[in-house]
Amino acid sequence: MYLLLFCQQFLNGLQFGVMLFLMASGLTLIFGIMDLINLAHGSLFMVGAYLCATVFQQTGSFMLGLLVALPGAALVGIVVEVFVLRTLYARDHLDQVLATFGLILFFNELTKIIWGPRALFLDVPEALSGTIEIIPGAPYPTFRLAIIVVGIIVAIFLYFLITRTRLGMLIRASATNREMVGALGVNVNLLYTLVFGLGALLAGLAGAMAGPLFAVEVGMGEDILILTFVVIVIGGIGSIRGALVGAILVGLIDTLGRAFLPALFKLFLDPATADGVGASLDSMAIYILMALVLAWKPRGLLPAHE
Amino acid sequence: MMKRLLILLTATLFLTASWALAGPVKIGMITTLSGGGSALGIAVRDGFKLAIDQEGGKLGGYPVQLIVDDDSRKPDKAKQIANRFMKRDNVDILTGIIWSNLAITVVPKAVREGVFYISPNAGPSLLAGKGCHENYFNVAWQNDNLHEAMGQYVKDNNFKKVFILAPNYPAGKDALRGFKRFYKGKPIAEVYTKLGQKDYAAELVSIRSAKPDAVFFFLPGGMGISFIKQYNQAGLTKDIPLFGPAFSFDQTILSAVGNAALGVMNSSQWNKDIDNPANKRFVADFKKAYGRLPSLYASQGYDAARLIASAIKAVGGDMSKKDAFRKALRKADFDSVRGNFKFGPNHYPVQDIYIRKVVEDDGVLTNRIVTKAFTNHSDAYVSQCKMK
Closest Cα of chain A to B313: distance in Å? Predict the structure, then answer.
């Protein structure tokens, strides 16, 4: 019984981790390679969800929504990079934080002007609705399983992109020494735009995949953004492998903590207090993890370049 | 000649000055118009404005001036706006706050300084009990009320194993306390989630393994949308009925939840099918003015304005008669869209609370009243209020 429960919660944690990975992989590339702190990454998540929901409402097809949301989010990302962020590379991090925070406000208000203040409806595609019993006796939502599969595909794709292609080589090279790559005649501006577009595309993918689960509403990317930053700090800034490990770790600890901490405290506290203490401690759990990781390995678990 | 002109000029000045004194009644509205939860503030504002527009810029037959500002759901910002409204704009009445934590920061100081505060939403227990004040009126509900009604209904329908769930913050704890106050029995599990949490996978597995016969939840805004969708996706809707307060089944929310909400029972003090002339007029005019169905919050904003209108009329638009104005507010001599409405000794409503069911009507998801949970229901804190 307990094993069954644990397996289900483990799967939930894995799924949440994969969702975080989709966000974190883009953010860590941007942060690691371009040395840019992009708080507006959550806005690109929101753009993905809104575009997908809009197309879904017009056509009734989630896949079509995805086909529009991915290039849509990438395009928005590229426009933002070219017109706003390019001027910020030379500035220090505080300026970048202020400017990208401004972008969050801008995107939130723009979304409200275009779509109104109400949350939008986005449903699970017909083929993926319902549940399957991959563990006997424990029906699991098919769509969540699909998210795990998509996450694994993206992880493999990124692995090949980074290790086996010329673009990946340039990305790795500029993560190590940007000036040298520029001096060797590589168009660093174009490379940055491509990396940012790729990050935006992944954020849009995460947003579109999250739409059927979460409320599609203004400001939906901000909660997940905070967790994403925790993930890339734990994993090591600029490292895709680190983002994967960090995301799975954070997803598992967050979910398992929520599921089992209150039960654990109930062993020696009265139920009402146990629920309160469990819930409070769980909110802290991932930050405690972050503090421990940083104390042990200040540059994260798998830093990009040592 | 010159002298005469001067006298004439002074006279005109005096005239305009006294005209300014008898000028419009000033109402300051502090509400949430941007960021998360802005749909609620916008609904309250639109409902309130509708009442003014119906009278062509007047309330109770006297001109009013409505000043609106956005608190972005931030207590410090709400406080600043309240100060500005009182010091610079000299408002007579404040209204509009959605969230209880904002109300607690703004209201006590404002009412102490002699301004009237009419709450169209937030009804914290503090302001209903020990912190009640003669200048504070709540036209919506006390925070616990809708949860209490759901507790009563779930008990009456013989659900024995109830799983209850709310965010880990004061209003969440109040909600579960309110539910338990009338459910009487002990729920099989009581779970507190993170405020702002979007993913409920872990809780849903706990629910399934606890095998309850009913689930009660209070998750306002986007949290509720996410929860209901995921509850449905996990295949729980057909096995375990879901119960909650109206906030998660409001007109603004249903369109984002979709069919996952169909058939769910929820508790509310208002619905658009309550049969009385005031409600019919409100629903029809709201649809005409804004092109959408009114929400619960819009009805509360509208009632707040209609209540103010009744008191302005009673004092003949003269806001210097504060005692008479307060007396008129207490009488609540207006046709509420809810039908029966009066104030208890703590200036919180004594009203009926209904159980509604989510249905599909002309292809639009909406609510229909099924039964009445309470008649003339007051709140649990009224005895703690020592008002002169």
Answer: 35
